[in-house]
Amino acid sequence: MIHQTIRLLDDSAATLTTYILDNGEFDQKDIVRPAIVICPGGGYTVISRNEGEPVALAYARMGYQAFVLAYSVKIDHPFPVALLELAHAMAYIRRHAEEWRVDEDNISVIGFSAGGNLALSLGIYYNQPLLAGSTGLTSAEIKPNQLLLGYPAVTLEPRSEKTPDFVIELMEKGLMPDMRGPSIREILLGKENLSAEEKASLNLLPRIHSGLPRTFIWGTYEDTVILPTDLFGLAGALFRHEVPCELHMFEKGQHGMSLADDTVKAPEQVQHLHLSEWFNLSLNWLRQGVRAD
Fold first, then answer.
1. Is there a contact between 204 and 154 (Cβ–Cβ < 8 Å)?
2. Could you give the domains of the chain?
3. Per-residue pLDDT tens for 97-111?
């Protein structure tokens, strides 16, 4: 495996870590493979480890060239800093497609939580002036061929203004990242004490358009961070714009479950869940798109 970490831009600490399968032998030699770019979550405050390398290795095992983007976070890196970094990551992969045996017409982006917000933003803005042209990149270089969104932040409306006590307990025990401080909306706008209009400006639902790539979405009803209505609203907006979409809502599972298996969570947290099925569902959905083409 080619496993290296690449700094994408001179003026940014963002990195792209590669999980590129070694060239095979005999009938497996020189296979050009699909690729997947992973945007972990973390409320734009941290980069979740559980939603990075474990996900990359899972897709690599299934024949994907995988990449994890560690994008810039915190309030001194407001929108669109991370989005520009993701755009450059996409262009970098396509420019190295031959070297890395990547099918440049089959590069998906998967994002979790805040990373889902980032991935969806790329699907929205890849062909708009914010990205196309202003970065020196073309829309063809940066467009994702598919989007996969795990419990994505869409409207950025909090499910509750108060952080649940059990979440605070987990943060204080070091069992999850401590994301207290500026909210995700304050981070994206680069300032605190936002007006209602400023908060509303970050809602991605009104920005959905017919040029988005086909999209796979999943979440849970138990999620204490992301409203189920966010996901229903996103699927509905995609339907209205005739963008192919698949939505899976699971009954059980808290926010940030990643693969929802023993590689990322304690066995007692996942042993009675079937949330991990999202991964196999995503593989079948990705293959279905290839067959449809």
1. yes
2. 5-292 (3.40.50.1820)
3. 999 999 999 999 999
